[in-house]
Specification:
Layout: H1 2-17, E1 31-36, H2 42-51, E2 56-62, H3 66-76, E3 80-82, H4 85-89, E4 96-99, H5 106-115, E5 119-123, H6 130-143, E6 147-150, H7 157-167, E7 174-184, H8 203-206, H9 209-218, E8 225-234, E9 237-252, E10 255-267, E11 282-287, E12 290-295, E13 305-310, E14 316-319, H10 325-328, H11 338-350, H12 361-378, H13 386-392
Parallel strand pairs: 1-2, 1-4, 2-3, 4-5, 5-6, 7-10
Antiparallel strand pairs: 7-11, 8-9, 9-10, 11-12, 12-13, 13-14
Helix pairs in contact: 1-2, 2-11, 5-6, 6-12
Length: about 400
C-alpha cells in the first residue's frame, strides 16, 4: 500500500510538472546546471522547468552510484553522468547546482558547491538547523555566489495575491492563522530517508511549508514565543516526529498573532478506510473583517483556490490565479509550475537581473531558527548538524 501511494504521488508530480508546450531554442550562453543526486523530485524540481527556459540547460547529474547517474542521464538526455558529487563540482562547464540530496546533506554540499564556484539552488529545508543555514549563506557571500532555498510555492502568483489581500488593510489586521499539511498513513515507506534522524528527517522538516506559509503571509521572522509544541514520535525512533502540532506567537505591525501549525506524515484514514488525499496543504487566515482560506498553496499550479469570506456580509468570493499577479505581471504563463516560476527567478538572479520574487538569506535562516524553536519546545531537540549526526550514527 505504501509503495502504491508513493508511486501515485510521484506520477502526479511528474506529469503535472511537464510543460504543455514543446521545448524552445536555447540562448548561446545559458546557465549550465548540474544536479547532485538522482532524487525523485528532480524531474518536477528542475528537469522539466529547464525544458522551456531559453537560458538554462542541464549538463550533468551525479550519484554515488554511477549506474544510477547514467540511468537518469539516459532517461532525461543529460550529457554527463558522474559517480561522485566531487566530480560534478570539479566540472568547469557547470555554473550552478541543484541540490536535491537528503536534508542532512544540504549544508555540506551547498558549501562545497559554493566553494567550487557554483551557484546553489538548495531543496527545502535549506539545512538541518539554523546554524547550518547561516553557514551556507556565509559561504555564498564569501564566494560571491547565489544560494537560495527552493521554496518553489513562494514564486507562484496565487501566493502573491493572498499576500497582497492580507497586506491591503481592507480586511483589518491579522488575528490568527492555521496552516496544515498531511500525508495519508502508509504513503511514505518506513525505509524512506524522511524518517531518518541523522538525515534531519521528520514531519516538521519535510512539511516545513506550513511554517514557510505562515511566516510569508505575516511578513514575520522568528516567533516571539512557542506556546506549545507536541510531537507524535515515530515508533522505533522517538527522536523523529511522525507528526507535529505547535502554536506560535508572532509580532507583526498589527500586533501579536497566534499561529497554529500541524504536520502529519502518517495521517489516519477517514473512517479507517479512506486515505485523506483531499487534505492538501492549506492556510486559514483570520482577519478582523474577513477569513481568507488558501487551498493547496504548495502545488497551486495543479489546482488551488483562494476563498475570501466577508465577516460583515457573510459573502464568500472564490478566486484562482495561475499567471500575472502583483509580482510577475505579464511575464508569466498559466501553464508554468511553481518550479518553473522559481527557475525564472533563479536564472534572473544568477545572470544579474532583478527577479520578480526572491527568498533572502535572512528569511531562510529565520525559517530554520523557527523550526529549531519548535523542535526544542517539543522536547525532541533541534535536528543535528551533519558532523554531529555522523558521530552519533
Amino acid at each position: 500500500m505504501a509503495m502504491v501511494l508513493q508511486i501515485t504521488t510521484f506520477l502526479q508530480q511528474w506529469l503535472e510538472s511537464r510543460p504543455s508546450v514543446k521545448e524552445g531554442p536555447k540562448s548561446s550562453d545559458p546557465v549550465r546546471f548540474g544536479i547532485l543526486s538522482t532524487a525523485m523530485i528532480n524531474p518536477a524540481g528542475l528537469i522539466h522547468p529547464v525544458e522551456t527556459h531559453p537560458n538554462a540547460v542541464i549538463k550533468a547529474i551525479a550519484s554515488r552510484d554511477v549506474r544510477n547517474a547514467q540511468k537518469a542521464a539516459k532517461t532525461y538526455k543529460i550529457e554527463k553522468a558522474y559517480g561522485s558529487y566531487e566530480e560534478l563540482l570539479a566540472d568547469p562547464e557547470i555554473d550552478a547546482v541543484y541540490i536535491s540530496l537528503p536534508n542532512g546533506m544540504h549544508a555540506e554540499w551547498a558549501k562545497k558547491a559554493l566553494s567550487a564556484g557554483k551557484h546553489a539552488l538548495i531543496e527545502k529545508p535549506v539545512s538541518s538547523n539554523g546554524d547550518e543555514a547561516a553557514s551556507i549563506f556565509d559561504a555564498a557571500k564569501e564566494n560571491n555566489k547565489v544560494a537560495v532555498e527552493a521554496f518553489h510555492w513562494r514564486y507562484h502568483p496565487a501566493a502573491h495575491v493572498v499576500k497582497s489581500l492580507v497586506d491591503s488593510g481592507r480586511y483589518g489586521r491579522v488575528l490568527s492563522t492555521c496552516a496544515r499539511m498531511t500525508t495519508p498513513a502508509g504513503s511514505i515507506p518506513k525505509s524512506d530517508i524522511r524518517w531518518q534522524w541523522d538525515l534531519a528527517g521528520g514531519s516538521l522538516m519535510d512539511m516545513t511549508y506550513t511554517v514557510s506559509a505562515t511566516r510569508y503571509i505575516l511578513g514575520a521572522e522568528t516567533p516571539v514565543n512557542v506556546e506549545f509544541a507536541k510531537a507524535r514520535p515515530l515508533k522505533g525512533d522517538g527522536r523523529v516526529d511522525e507528526a507535529m502540532e505547535a502554536r506560535l506567537q508572532f509580532e507583526t505591525d498589527g500586533g501579536l498573532v497566534q499561529s497554529d501549525i500541524k504536520t502529519d506524515m502518517s495521517q489516519s484514514f477517514a473512517g479507517r478506510l479512506v486515505p485523506r488525499v483531499w487534505e492538501l496543504p492549506s492556510i486559514r487566515i483570520e482577519l478582523e473583517h474577513a477569513t481568507i482560506y488558501y487551498y493547496n498553496f504548495m502545488m497551486p499550479h495543479i489546482y488551488h483556490y483562494i476563498q475570501v469570506t466577508d465577516k460583515q456580509t457573510g459573502q464568500t468570493h472564490t478566486q484562482k490565479h495561475y499567471s500575472f499577479g502583483p509580482s510577475w505581471g505579464p511575464r508569466s504563463e498559466p501553464w508554468w509550475s511553481t518550479y518553473r516560476y522559481q527557475l525564472e527567478a533563479f536564472v534572473d538572479k544568477v545572470t544579474g537581473k532583478e527577479p520578480a520574487h526572491w527568498i533572502s538569506p535572512e528569511d531562510s535562516i529565520a525559517q530554520m531558527r523557527t523550526l529549531d524553536a519548535i523542535y526544542v519546545k517539543s522536547g525532541l531537540g533541534k535536528r543535528p548538524s551533519t558532523a554531529s549526526a555522523a558521530k552519533s550514527g
